[in-house]
Amino acid sequence: MAEDLWYWKYKLTARQPVNAKSQRREFVGALVRIDEGFGCLHPWPELGDPSLEKCLEDLAGPRRWSLVRRTVRSAKEDADARFIGDPLLEEIDVPKSHATLPWQDDRILESAVSKGFDRIKMKVGRDRAAEQRYLIEAAAKFPNLRWRLDANETFEPAEAESFLLGLPEEFRWKIDFVEDPCPYAESTWSALKSRCGVPLAVDREAAPVSSAAQVMVVKPASDEPWLLAEAAVSMGQQVIVTSSMEHPLGQCAAAWEAAKLNVQFPGLVGVCGLQTHHLFTPCPFSERLGRWSPEFQSPGGTGLGFDDLLERLPWKKLS
Amino acid sequence: MAEDLWYWKYKLTARQPVNAKSQRREFVGALVRIDEGFGCLHPWPELGDPSLEKCLEDLAGPRRWSLVRRTVRSAKEDADARFIGDPLLEEIDVPKSHATLPWQDDRILESAVSKGFDRIKMKVGRDRAAEQRYLIEAAAKFPNLRWRLDANETFEPAEAESFLLGLPEEFRWKIDFVEDPCPYAESTWSALKSRCGVPLAVDREAAPVSSAAQVMVVKPASDEPWLLAEAAVSMGQQVIVTSSMEHPLGQCAAAWEAAKLNVQFPGLVGVCGLQTHHLFTPCPFSERLGRWSPEFQSPGGTGLGFDDLLERLPWKKLS
Predict the structure, then answer these.
(1) Among partner residues B142, B236, B266, which is closest to A267 by beta-carbon distance?
(2) Domain check: are B136 and B82 in the same one?
(3) Three-state SS string across chain B, please?
(4) What is the extent of the structural domain holding A112?
């Protein structure tokens, strides 16, 4: 039976650049409708994904890309839940989230603390001396915070070491993990973690074979969560589930996967990264996810939610 | 105007020994009623406190002991809140709590994980090799947990070092802090934390001058929280507020102090230790604090709560 395939392109506008590898502020992705189910397709070409056009072509055709296959999988699960009227994100514990600091700003950090966040994720690698100063001051001001530093592989191994050793030992104890400090290699990562005394987190492709990492970042937008979680268990790694800075529907899909893993593997999933909507200018969808908070708020509706908003979108037929 | 002073002795029965320094299972303390306010007085003689009898004498007399003065202070705040009908523990964010593992037991640890605890506090120093084995296995099974090891000063400095270095580096990164590894001394603590790469937490007397610690444990039962918190701020330390393994009314007094500090010093207070009632056999008071959970549950009522239960106690006049 042929599928009924539709798409709607959306644009997210970041309040500030969101990535060490890109100064872009506007990001385009698509919501897709596959029969009665909805999914989000949000490629990040600067991080190695194919373009949105290529993804949509692939969706209509062979479905070779894991990003596309994951969207299809998510839309099918959404369709099943909508059919039986089940709101996926209600009556299930979605793990809490860290606060993503879009840039070094005292006011935003204070706001995060007042909203109850105790883990802060910050991108590093753009202005290293300023970042070090900021981290030291922020940790002195708010001693209860733990830090997640995401370098998006912008460091060389020696640079990562000098950046981390440039932070006082007592700050390094507050580092939850350093994500992708440099391209993954067993030997460089093992040396880096021991010399600096900080856990490392691996994101993207290398994940299933990354035994030198202590934390595995699972992005349901492109990863199969169950398989990665099983690999993490076998390597004694903690799992962090993050959304992919995509549309709120995609955030809900990530939150659902995080909640499932949390049930399936008790004690495996740490504080996640599911609250990224505040990085972008608000839209009717993001307003349903509520105010910035460590707790994920269900958008209401059936399946992944947003029933009424999704019905009203000007869907285009994908052929 | 003379105060109206009453007391009622209670007995708590531990499910297992609760302290590395004591094999005792039954613990006696007193609730006190000062005019219209209630407080808890729970000395731990094995940790250096005067006996309950001496405390009650002191309460009726000079009020020299800080334990006694804190009880009086708490009862006065309770009286004020009851007078205006204010339930102190409602509509205020009480910090979350760690799970106190009374002894090494897989079933209890699994239960803690399933209830959402992500920090585990365990007493160490009784059977060191068994404790090390247990910690390593538990961390492999539940990689998202962070650990708080409380030694109650049972180690010599060299023993503490060998105990900690006997744990793999990757486990040590999961140590939130080691509490009172050995008697506090600036030089031994500084050496210990650097050699082992773990934060140290200081409890009891030494707190205001303990700059070699990274975490300050504030026990409102005997400490003045505001003064210690100010000292912690000046030393860049995180503050953890803990109850004193006392009567549920005392737990509520500690929870109230934790909530106040959290408002007064944003970002200072970490996950606390306020959920100790499950260590003891249940009583009508502890049942009001609900099931074991990281979230503190208000017992209901005005002031520190328990209005109806407190009214029905067979108070004795203290003279």
Answers:
(1) B142
(2) no
(3) CCCCEEEEEEEEEECCCCECCECCCEEEEEEEEECCEEEEECCCHHHCCCCHHHHHHHHHCCCCCHHHHHHHHHHHHHHHHHHCCCECCCCCCCCCECEEECCCCHHHHHHHHHCCCCEEEEECCCCHHHHHHHHHHHHHHCCCCEEEEECCCCCCHHHHHHHHHCCCHHHHCCEEEEECCCCCCHHHHHHHHHHHCCCEEECHHHHHHCCCCCEEEECCCCCCHHHHHHHHHHHCCEEEEECCCCCHHHHHHHHHHHHHHHHHCCCCECCEECCCHHHECCCHHHHHCCCCCCCCCCCCCCECCCHHHHHCCCCEECC
(4) 99-288
